[in-house]
UniProtKB/TrEMBL annotation:
InterPro entries: Aldolase_TIM (IPR013785), Thiazole_synthase_ThiG (IPR033983), ThiG (IPR008867). The active site is at 95 (schiff-base intermediate with dxp). Homotetramer. Forms heterodimers with either ThiH or ThiS. It comes from Kiloniella litopenaei. This is Thiazole synthase. The keyword Repeat does not apply.
Amino acid sequence: MKFYDDEISSRLLIGTALYPSPAIMLEAIKASKAEIVTVSLRRESGTEQAGQNFWSFIKDSGAKVLPNTAGCKSVKEAVTTAHMAREIFETPWVKLEVIGEDDSLQPDVFGLVEAARILSEDGFQVFPYTTEDLVVAEKLISAGCEILMPWGAPIGSGRGLNNIYGLRSLRAHFPNIPLIVDAGIGLPSHAAAAMELGYDAVLLNTAVAKAGDPVLMAKAFALAIESGLQCYQADPIEKRDMAAPSTPVAGLPFWNQDHA
Ligand SMILES: CC(=O)[C@@H](O)[C@H](O)COP(=O)(O)O
């Protein structure tokens, strides 16, 4: 699978915030088998982890860094943060978040499209955190995005896939665009469900970082994602309203007698 110019094999992208300690974070990243970690510049700048040390620590994890603009609420703030990220991490990748509302942390899709256009024209490879709205998706693609990251549910809510119908429609409309469910995942089964819908990958943070045992939870997610992917590749059966006997009755000894 390709994310812009890069060949990617792991279907799990993992966040680097909220862990009990940097050591547990590194162990959890390893256990998740994620190749890509996302780092929030704004969030980390306001914590004790800020500064060169934290950035080098992340670089040392060996994972590819997807800087993000988490917490940005305007186009200007998101664009400036993306530029800082490009300088620090020397990558054209940016996970673009433009938050429009405080209770749901819902993306401001108008600001998102505008920021995506500005950054794409400036050579960034944008991973937009969006809703499942098809029209917004079209506009993001026209703005230069080659990947979409619809939310599963509000960030940190752990609710899973709030709108399976919308996510399925998005998959059907954009069969050739890499789609990553981002945010709101609470359980490994939620991540498996996203992969079973044919999504290319899942990005999550809180469900692992805030678990009682983040390392064990990271392993559970790695297994669930693999299971969901294999399920999709195996072409699962369609749901039916009526029963369809799975045990054949013709040829059984009592069948003829009872039905003769
Ligand atoms: C880390 C990051 O990028 C978050 O903004 C992201 O959307 C993950 O959300 P959860 O913490 O709900 O998994």
